[in-house]
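User:
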Amino acid sequence: MKALYFNQFGDSDVLKYGDLATPAIDENSVLVKTEFIGLNFADIYRRRGNYHIEPSDPYINGYEASGQVVQVGAGLDKGLLGQSVLFVDVPYANAEYVKVPSEKLIILPTAIDTKQAATIGLQGLTADFLANDLGQNNKDDRVFITGISGGVGQILSQILSAKGVKVSGSVSTELKQQIALSLGASKVYLNRDKALWQPVLKGKLETVYDGVGSTLTESIELLKNKGKVIFFGMAGGNPENIDLIDLLTHSKSILTGDLWDYLSSFKERQNRSQRLFKLVSTGKINISEPTIFHLSEGQAAHNFLESGKSTGKVLMKV
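Assistant: Predicted structure:
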């Protein structure tokens, strides 16, 4: 099979594309022929050696892809054969074929094709978890999303807006600003103008969703007393040390979590994905077109994601 792999940690130039052995399945797994593979910031961290990656020789990155089941283990229902599926937490996904444990399959409804599924997949389930498990905002709450035009930010903004939440956020360029506004955000601010808008918003917000990391202190300052930051990523670098006494004094809190503690079973995956897919199929979530590279262009895909130029999901097509 064809795969994107590397032998040592480093910059994107360590990535290679070539032939590796097709994985063998066991009785409780299936073989998925991938069509679209999701590229995420976690994959950048894994390639650099800054994040856990499953051991293999050579290393095969990636945990998220969509495609068709082409082989079914002896202990499983043969009706799985030919099903269109998504998975978001299975290693070695940067390959033409991936062995997937049956409990980690997400069966796609007919209304969602494999490109849509990979476009919304991990980022959509992350946004769903942030909004419904951590944020739990009420109608008319004022919330702010850092990097609102990114893959998670776009979906999160729309999930919250569908609940009647008043959503604003920040972006790095005018193009990203227009994208976020077109998806229903009420106000979108440019990072370069922080000196103008941060004082206006300071102390005014119920919730800030921060996936940038390095902005965590600024996010805390935007909160009302009793407000909360939902901390979910470090796309812009690690956060500064936080003064917990100051948080306590102003009754502010930081909530965080790992999606994998919530995607704990096949049933959880199906329930959460169906909730998400329903919002897509009924038009309450609109997904911008992904930027697609061929798997053989893995270096270029990594460089593009790291450049900060992406305005949505980056996929690699097999």
